[in-house]
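Quick check before the chapter quiz. The format below is the same one you will see on the exam, so make sure you can read both the input and the output lines.
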Amino acid sequence: MSSDVSTPAVIIKAEGVTKRFGSVVAVNRVDYELREYEVAGILGSNGAGKTSFFNLLTGYFIPDEGRILYQGQDVTRMTPQERVALGMMRTFQLTSTFDNLSVIDNLVLAFFRAHRKSSLWQLLTNTCKQHRKDEKILATLASFDLERVANREVSHLGLGEKRRMEIAMAILAEPKVLLLDEPLAGLAESEIKGVLDVLQRQVGRQTILIVEHKISHLEHFLQKLIVMHEGRIIAEGGYECLQSPEVRKSYWQIDEAAA
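Here is the expected output.
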């Protein structure tokens, strides 16, 4: 029987992963699948286990039980750097962000460190000046609404501008999976819109996984959600899964009996 070609392949898979910190079980036998080109979210209140699970997926924690697969390959004990080389990139895994350099020079460095085997000194002394007008760099500035601040030092950026630049740098490295840990944290409403606008343009181009505490801004962006509580996945599906009784009780703090 032929396989269903309309179903995207699983790109990241967690099988029964567990992580303990002393007597605390932060992640409790979690099974999870992320498919290619999905835009997915991990939601949960503080202490739910979502960040610990995210750290397991990205290699910052090694599970006490279970395993992590990437495109069918067992990466359970691979370092974060080894996973980046395979195509998994978390935003703070970027090559160095230079606050005393301009936005455009940071983009140039991110692109050429990912695609060219050059030393950092060679990149700093030669690449930036030569490639500030590179078509891909200019297109990225436009796509991420960074043209106005292209020549501004990163140290002088607003938080929303810097967050867009960080995501632009990650995307320039062309990872297969872009993993974002609370990308909207600390942003004003206008800044949140800017970040979501640039992420929206990546839908269908990359697989995106976002860990977020607040979900209100992501309702029309995420295609699939899991909700975690006390280290377990308690709901999975579309946005409607947030209305399940267990989610209403543990995440929304709604007492069904009282209601």
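If your answer matched, good. The CA atoms of residues 114 and 173 lie 5 Å apart.
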